[in-house]
Design a protein that fits this description.
Elements (H helix, E strand, L loop, with lengths): L4 H14 L4 E8 L5 E15 L1 E11 L9 E4 L5 E3 L14 H4 L8 H14 L3 E3 L2 H18 L3 H6 L13 E5 L3 H13 L4 E5 L8 H8 L5 E4 L10 E4 L10 H13 L2 H7 L4 E4 L4 H12 L6 E3 L3 H14 L3 H4 L2 E4 L7 E4 L8 H23 L5 H16 L4 E8 L11 E9 L2 E5 L6 H19 L4
Parallel strand pairs: 7-8, 7-10, 8-9, 10-11, 11-12
Antiparallel strand pairs: 1-2, 2-3, 3-4, 5-6, 13-14, 15-16, 16-17
Helix pairs in contact: 6-14, 8-10, 11-13
Function: Interconverts simultaneously and stereospecifically pyruvate and lactate with concomitant interconversion of NADH and NAD(+).
GO molecular function: L-lactate dehydrogenase (NAD+) activity
InterPro entries: L-lactate/malate_DH, Lactate/malate_DH_C, Lactate/malate_DH_N, Lactate_DH/Glyco_Ohase_4_C, NAD(P)-bd_dom_sf, UBQ-conjugating_enzyme/RWD, UEV_N
């Protein structure tokens, strides 16, 4: 069942060598959504010095996408131990650590995780001794935790998402990343009303800060904030907004840092939502959409970048409302690469029969397009405006609107592009992602620009380490 069996076995050998007291077994794990899976797990104690020396019992579950997804970690207290809820441990004994949030193979290992666990527990001891009267209540709590972590079926009926709604109809969106863009997406999606539930997955270290804290204070209906990947389970759409804020010196280093970040995120997201549509808003969107596609192993139809959707909507608005070219606006699209290399194009349904009339129409259209592009240049992309664009895209996907959007999609085979690159092209979107690519008018200049963008994006991808 394990996708990377040899890597998993090799790592567990290292754990056994460093911590020989751990025992290994296969057991059933019940996820938050009630789904169950047989997973490898191991139990043991870790030595912690907190004045005196303590042996802290822990229980680790190894996901089947390991080592690309982090283990699920619990304390395993005995009946005479109480759980000290703190910044690294919740009331059910679930363990949360920066090492887990920043998990990235091959840098992250189970041995390294246990070492950080020991260090954090020495700062804040996670367990305490119970009196005999408290021990009885603790026994009840341990029984409940055992049901969660050892596959008892009666928990399943209580924990289905949607409070008993038909799971197939439950429209859940997860937004990964709690920066300005992530919060903007949550607010826009919630305002659009397309989703039954919106989960904000906050991968930052420590307690809630800034906007995330404000979202908790001014609680919105159907919005949940979590640091736990399992909260994303069974999402119909997962929006990726995270960008690395490392100390990279070059543009290539910045992108590689983002790739490393995604290596710890995409496998976990894919594990919990195997039928989701990935919607990438991280930068650079063409490259990070390609990275998401490769790391998830999803079909190309279910991995989409926000691409030029915002620019296209603005462009069509400018043509209709400012330049009074409503007829042209219906078939106008911004395509290609985000930034200065984007290019206006047209769908092929508006061709004129006579060649002379077609030439006149083309010249007139190009003048209008040039004016429209000049106006478009002055419009920046703020977090809230990208958030509105994301809400527009998720609405089309969740409601199966089959509306046409200019989004980053695999461009191989289009316009004589032979490399695996993602560029913005007009696509019909539905519940399964990209349903069909819309045919564009054949324009040699547009094709040349697309091929140039494809070449530069492909060259950049070749320098990255996936």
């Amino acid at each position: 069942q394990y996708k990377f069996r040899d890597l998993t076995i090799e790592e567990l050998k290292n754990v056994n060598k460093t911590y020989p007291n751990f025992t290994f077994s296969m057991n059933t794990y019940t996820f938050k959504d009630g789904s169950q899976k047989d997973l490898l797990n191991f139990s043991g104690t870790v030595p912690v010095k907190y004045g005196n020396s303590y042996n802290i019992p822990i229980h680790l579950w190894i996901l089947d996408s390991h080592p690309f997804a982090p283990p699920i970690c619990f304390l395993k207290p005995t009946v005479n131990m109480g759980i000290s809820v703190g910044k690294h441990v919740d009331a059910h004994g679930r363990i949360y650590l920066p090492y887990l949030q920043n998990w990235s193979h091959p840098k992250s290992t189970v041995v390294g995780l246990i070492k950080e666990m020991i260090a954090k527990f020495e700062e804040e001891l996670p367990l305490y001794s119970l009196s005999s009267s408290d021990a009885a209540r603790q026994s009840e709590l341990l029984s409940y935790i055992a049901k969660i972590t050892e596959g008892e079926t009666d928990v399943k009926s209580k924990s289905k998402i949607g409070g008993g709604k038909n799971e197939g109809c439950f429209k859940k969106i997860t937004v990964v990343g709690a920066g300005d863009l992530g919060i903007a997406c949550v607010l826009a999606v919630a305002a659009k009303g397309a989703a039954d539930k919106v989960v904000l997955l906050d991968l930052s270290e420590g307690t809630a800060k800034g906007g995330t804290m404000d979202l908790e204070i001014f609680a919105l209906p159907n919005v949940e904030i979590s640091k736990d990947f399992s909260a994303s389970a069974d999402s119909k759409v997962v929006v990726l907004t995270v960008n690395s804020l490392g100390n990279a010196q070059t543009y290539l280093d910045v992108i590689q840092s983002n790739v490393d970040l995604f290596r710890g995120i995409i496998p976990a997201i894919s594990h919990y939502s195997q039928d989701t549509v990935l919607l990438v808003a991280s930068h650079p969107v063409e490259v990070m959409t390609y990275v998401s596609w490769k790391l998830s192993a999803f079909p190309k139809s279910r991995v989409i970048g926000v691409g030029a959707n915002l620019d296209t909507e603005r462009f069509q608005y400018i043509l209709t409302n400012l330049l009074k070219a409503e007829v042209l606006a219906k078939d106008a699209w911004i395509i290609g690469e985000q930034g200065e290399d984007k290019v206006p194009s047209w769908t092929s349904c508006n061709l004129v029969a006579k060649q002379t009339e077609a030439m006149t129409a083309r010249n007139s259209r190009e003048k209008v397009a040039n004016r429209g592009m000049e106006v478009l240049k002055g419009k920046g992309q703020r977090s809230w405006s990208v958030g509105l664009s994301v809400a527009d895209l998720t609405d089309s996907i969740l409601k199966d609107k089959r509306k046409v959007h200019s989004v980053s999609t695999l461009a191989k085979g289009c316009c004589n592009i032979n490399s695996e690159v993602f560029l913005s092209l007009p696509c019909i979107l539905g519940t399964s992602g990209v349903i069909e690519m819309v045919k564009l008018e054949e324009d040699p200049l547009v094709q040349e620009k697309l091929q140039s963008s494809a070449g530069s994006v492909h060259d950049l991808q070749q320098q990255l380490k996936l």
